[in-house]
Amino acid sequence: MEKGKVLLSLLIVSIIGILVLVHMNGDTYYIQAPTAIKAPLSNNKFKILEASYPITPIRDSEHFMVSAFIDHRLDGVIRVISIINRNRLQPLYCVYCNAEQVCKTVHTEVQIHSDHFGFPYGASDVICKGKPMTDATHVLITVKKDSADLKIEYLPIKNKALQETFKFNFTVCISNLFGDYNNVLQFAQTMEMYKLLGVQHVVIYNTSSGPDMEKLLKHYETEGILEIVPWPIDQFLNPSSGWNIKLHKGDIQYYGQLVTLNECIYRHMYQSKYVLLNDIDEIIMPYKHATLQSLMEDLQSAHPSIGVFLIENHIFPKTQFEESGKFKRAEWNNIPGVNIMEHIYREPSRKNIYNPTKMIVNPRKVQQTSVHSPLKHFRGSVLVPFNVCRIVHVRVPLQGSLTKEQLVVDKRVWDFEQELIHNIDHTLKLSGFLKASV
């Protein structure tokens, strides 16, 4: 009896002696918790429920977990891509579990990305501190140390194997489709252009798209080049349709664009040699090389240690049309969207005005990215010269007062016209937009 009282007293003292220290340092939030705790489990209570969507609420918090990866570059820690409410920070814990339902709990370091544009919710990494179990298969982010025996959705841990051979050479990550996007013709042209340039894989995070676009997406998904990731961000938050919080109100910038770009990098860390980060209406276009492969061979030869290549964005106003009308094809008249082949006039660069960039990256050399440049990366970055590679971006003008004569003629897309048109027509037939006789 006395022995039991002594043990109880020691237990109470131990619990009282546990200190949870919270440190705020810039946008990094550290939580120092007790050392790893093995969670007692009951097989009839505990069950790993793999998250069915890429957005999973963290119980009893205003945060969300998205996906989990081993980061082999940082001693094999688990990195959980997350959406964190910057105004509602609280201690978070990682619960690792293996296939035999053995779990342990560790403390975390929450890294809120520095680019959140003032919105309350931001892209974040929850780093599970300490070395995980070597056979861990799933992880849970929780506010409670004793969550391991609950029926809560866990995330599968990805990138478990460190690979040096890749399924794809080039993957394009398109951050978001929303607002019932239905620009079918431009998307088909962009996809077929990228295929000619050597892209084997395209990833789209889809919140909502129009009925015609859905048909085209399904075609490319069936073909095997397109991976569609459901992104129901509007079911959990009020997403902004822009990046400027003063103009576009909401909980998170541009439908969670920064979250999806980072998720796409880690998703393809060991699947793709290079990842292109650009929008759906942009083409990263080599001007001195026939393909992206030959472009990157030359760039890497000149900069062997660099993993981030910045490509300037240049606007081709969709309000200015090529005068001969040679690509105003009757076959495309009823296809919704912009015909990029009609828009060969490029806005000139302006003195002392920065041209935003998008990126071609080696994903294994990036830790965190923003839209136009990386936030944390290894070995630096290089701005690719304008005459070597630039972005063809057909959209509303930025310099709307310029006349056609003040714009620059740029017919680079026409260099691919014969094969490009044939492939576009073939795709439009297979996806049901054109009759087979075309």
Care to describe what's here?
18% of the residues lie in helices and 32% in strands. By secondary structure, it is α+β, with helices and mostly antiparallel strands. Strands 13, 14, 15, 16, 17, 18, 20, 23 and 24 form a nine-stranded mixed beta sheet that branches. A hairpin with a 4-residue loop joins strand 21 and strand 22 (374-377). Helix 2 crosses helix 6. 41% of the residues are buried. Residues 1-45 have low confidence and may be disordered.
Give the secondary structure arrangement, pairings included.
Elements: H1 2-17, E1 21-25, E2 28-32, E3 37-39, E4 49-50, E5 56-57, E6 64-71, E7 77-85, E8 93-98, E9 103-112, E10 121-128, E11 136-142, E12 153-158, E13 168-177, H2 184-197, E14 201-206, H3 211-223, E15 226-230, H4 257-267, E16 272-277, E17 282-286, H5 292-302, E18 308-317, E19 345-346, E20 357-361, E21 366-369, E22 374-377, E23 381-383, E24 389-395, E25 408-409, H6 417-430
Parallel strand pairs: 4-12, 6-12, 13-14, 13-16, 14-15, 18-23, 18-24
Antiparallel strand pairs: 1-2, 2-9, 3-9, 5-6, 6-7, 7-10, 8-9, 8-11, 9-10, 11-12, 16-20, 17-24, 18-20, 19-25, 21-22
Helix pairs in contact: 2-6
The radius of gyration is 25 Å
* End-to-end separation: 91 Å
Q: What coarse outline follows from CA principal-axis ratios? A: globular
Structural class estimated from helices and strands: alpha+beta
Mean pLDDT: 88
Strand content: 25-35%
What is the strand tally?
25
Please report the number of helical segments: 6
Low-confidence stretches: 1-45
User: Helix proportion of residues, in percent?
Assistant: 10-25%
Largest sheet features: 9 strands, mixed
